[in-house]
Amino acid sequence: MEQLRTFGRELAMGSQGGFYQSKEFLDLVKSIGEARSKAEEDRIVVNEIDTLKRRIAEPDIPKRKMKEYIIRLVYIEMLGHDASFGYIHAVKMTHDDSLLVKRTGYLAVTLFLNEEHDLIILIVNTIQKDLKSDNYLVVCAALNAVCKLINEETIPAVLPQVVELLAHPKEAVRKKAIMALHCFYQKSPSSVSHLISNFRKRLCDNDPGVMGATLCPLFDLITRDVNSYKDLVISFVSILKQVTERRLSKAYDYHQMPAPFIQIKLLKILALLGSGDKQASENMYTVVGDVFRKCDFSSNIGNAVLYECICCVSSIYPNPKLLDSAADIISRFLKSDSHNLKYMGIDALGRLIKISPEIAEQHQLAVIDCLEDPDDTLKRKTFELLYKMTKSTNVEVIVDRMIDYMISINDNHYKTEIASRCVELAEQFAPSNQWFIQAMNKVFEHTGDLVNIKVAHNLMRLIAEGFGEDDDNADSKLRSSAVESYLRILGEPKLPSGFLQVICWVLGEYGTADGMFCASDITGKLCDVAEAYSSDDTVKAYAVTALMKIYAFEIAAGREVDMLTECQSLMEELLASHSTDLQQRAYELQGVIGLDAHAVEFIMPSDASCEDIEVDKDLSFLDGYIQEAIEKGAQPYIPESERPGVLNMGNFRNQDHHESSHGLRFEAYELPKPAVQPRIPRALLPSTEIVPVPEPVYPRETYQTPVTPIPSNPSDAGSAELKLRLDGVQKKWGRPTYTPETSTSNSTSQKTVNGAAQVDGPSTVNSTRETYASRKLQVEISHEKQKLAASLFGGSSKPEKRPATGHKVSKASSHMLEKSHVPNSSMEVASEKTAPAQTPPDLLDLGEPTSTSTAPSLDPFKQLEVLLDATQDASAANSATSASRSPDVMALYADTPVGIHNKDEADLLSGMSNMSGATARPQPTKGSSKGPNPKDSLEKDSLVRQMGVKPSSQNPNLFKDLLG
Amino acid sequence: MGIRFILMVNKQGQTRLAQYYEWLTLEERRALEGEIVRKCLARNEQQCSFVEHRNYKIVYRRYASLFFLVGVDNDENELAILEFIHLLVETMDRHFGNVCELDIMFHLEKAHFMLEEMVMNGSIVETSKANILSPIQLMEKAS
């Protein structure tokens, strides 16, 4: 039957005009289609390669035949074999006069070649010619190729023609031209920086296809620089409005929805523009509300648009009405039987939860169902949600669950991700030291070296410094429990290197500190480690140093030290080690053991890891010695720069290593400058190598500058062809992602919504109980699930964050104390009331209800908002009536009058809203929005940069010392 | 960027069409296709139509013997991509009339032409079936 059908089709296809196919081709396709295994398929393809290699080089192949050969080449590559022998023929085919043959040639070339391929240069000429063609289909074919094949260097060759085509009478050409420009922008923003206005212009194109395509580049542009496009809010809103009112051609309808893909793109753009911008957001409320209302819940596409609405609503300045609609949709998604909708629901919940944390509670059982679902995708999404709603009350359950899941999977990519999330959550919210240590142990044991080594270092520091409270007792308990657990874990085979380093360090530092274990226990274990992991030098080094510490502490305490035999043999081995590092450590250990208690105590003071070591950069301790020498008649030291004769040499060398040391220089030598005295402070000179050089930070910053608005300097862009363009270099480091200030919006929004929501401790507990009860009627819920739900969602106690443990600042703050006060949090609330604006805006700080305090201040705010809504509705109505009067739909947003009309009102509204905002509560300042402690993260960042960038000037310095 | 690649694969895991919007070498494509197809084919009807793979999210849909797989960035609307696949199938249906795996195999270039109209630079640019198909019809007439 199947065969018969195939046969019928073949007959039908034989008659299809220009798409002629030979028997040979049909046979090939059929045999590929009938191949039952990969091996069989490979055999067919290898045969085909042989045949084609012979045939394709024959002279005078008819066009149609050649086209078929090229498609056969496409097949070869698609099935995973190399067809590079035929690339040149595909390139040749792009010269053909026949449109179909030409386009097939272009298609093959775009599939075969990347933009760096050598053959591209042969195609550029053809493309240039085709862009000028009278046949618009030829132009379109060339524009397709432009998007795929033109690289940064060849952009100037086609740019003028592409820009010209933006005004082509055919909408298909305009659409493709705008996308070509988009592509240039992606590849080299500076190449089109003077042409950005074209994107704005095409937004007003009267063909909806061109307008829809223009949204793609605009989305990119707005992602990188929101503020320059705020004026377009009105236009986008107006377009979306017209789309929802079905003013676009019916051809764009999909499943009875008017142009849903354009709606989605517009909602994405609005989400960017409205983020953290109350004034812009207010212009959007009406139209987003309309989209909500008009969407069809029964179709997939309707739900896709609804989901995008939720994303938009949770990104822009919050509006209670819209948030309610969003919450409704989310519960509809979560209650659905479709896994796809559940997935979208969980994702949407994760977005909305930042603004209105209380909505999670009504969905707790649905969330737990998703968590326990066998479907991995759904499970992961749910973990993502849990990660977002973690607080100190539920961190244990969540992290334990995450770890269990982490152990169960074997996808390294995701394992790493979930492990670093566990670590992050544990560091932020750990309720107790014991739990923290145990959680970290599990993470380390199972993910091994997948986690960043910095995490291991953080853990060491945490154990050394404690959790920040000045309670030595707690600190030593933490250490003892760490030591105890490590001794136990060491019994297990195959521990990852990073974890072993932590273990060795902790055992060395604190193994004998509390007197529970004697030195021989610990040293025995350490020797075992060094023996069992003898191929890992780092671990061995840690182990030897730990041994040294243990013995030193023993000697300092006045106890007799007798080395275990295994330890002695280890020492002997290491004294002859090939690694100089290990050798040195071994010799040091040997040296320490021979010293008396007093000296040892001085070299190896116990528990000194937290002492700050001050580096005397001036080497002032040598002053006395120098003085003495000078008195005895020695020559005083003259800094190199001040020495006569050496001066010029020094300058030369200085210049040398400012220039990049690699590569030839092509530009003319600059005029010799008068010798300038390098003003290097005398004190710094001897220690140049030790002092961290701040220089390396700058080059990074220059990389990043192109990310921020490109200066639209016409003269600059005009000469772009002549200059070396370095911006492309930056692109190779990955597309810089610019995250808009969503967090500001969240922080501001969060407060309003919290105020509106008004939940205080006991009442929430009640409400959750109620939901339990009502649910019980419908479904039998297992006791276990309920317990899980209660532990995840129950108790809306305040989540508080501990500053990341990696920082020393924590000593003073007494977070643990705070935690114990959670039940009667009235004190904290009071203190917050006095300074609400000062609480750091915090993404994860979801459930922070400022409780009773906000009630009175809230009401006028709400009233104002209602007022605003009313006026806005009126304005919307106005514009609607004016819209219906005008016959040309798409010209509406192009015409200025409507825009201005709208704008005036918007300004008026915004004025009011600003006032209301001001009266309600002071707006937190922008910028100070990211993370729990922006300063800390900044410090971290700069530290990383310093570590990551190797100061290149060090080597020249080395030479300087050798030569000078 | 949005869409990173579009694949059509039959239920034996054989590739029927592949279009990438970022450059991968032949080996990388081969490996990627193998991994993804294995992942997606192992899933049942009730499970989500989305799978995470490395940095991609794969949205897939099955039509008879053929799987349509679209690899997208993390911030893409999955449901919309799912419907985009359906739009593609509807468009091919309109052109071929009750499209099947063999139609795509015999007219690989036409299937590519349709995709070229619908997606550029990894973004959906055209969703009107008439606009997508008109160049192909014109080419048929011309030759």
From TrEMBL, chain A:
Residues 55-593 form the Clathrin/coatomer adaptor adaptin-like N-terminal domain. Residues 728-769, 791-857, 904-964 are annotated as: Disordered. Adaptor protein complex 4 (AP-4) is a heterotetramer composed of two large adaptins, a medium adaptin and a small adaptin. SUPFAM superfamilies: ARM repeat (SSF48371). Its main location: membrane. Belongs to the adaptor complexes large subunit family. Subunit of novel type of clathrin- or non-clathrin-associated protein coat involved in targeting proteins from the trans-Golgi network (TGN) to the endosomal-lysosomal system. This is AP-4 complex subunit epsilon. GO terms for cellular component: AP-4 adaptor complex; endomembrane system. The keyword Lipid metabolism does not apply. Residues 739-769 have a biased composition (Polar residues).
UniProtKB/TrEMBL annotation, chain B:
Pfam families: Clat_adaptor_s. Residues 3-142 form the AP complex mu/sigma subunit domain. This is AP complex subunit sigma. Its main location: membrane. Belongs to the adaptor complexes small subunit family. PANTHER family: ADAPTOR COMPLEXES SMALL SUBUNIT FAMILY. Keywords: Membrane, Protein transport, Transport. It is found in: Endomembrane system. The keyword Protein transport applies. Signal peptide: none annotated. SUPFAM superfamilies: SNARE-like. It comes from Hibiscus syriacus. One of its GO terms (biological process) is intracellular protein transport. The keyword Transport applies. One of its GO terms (cellular component) is endomembrane system.
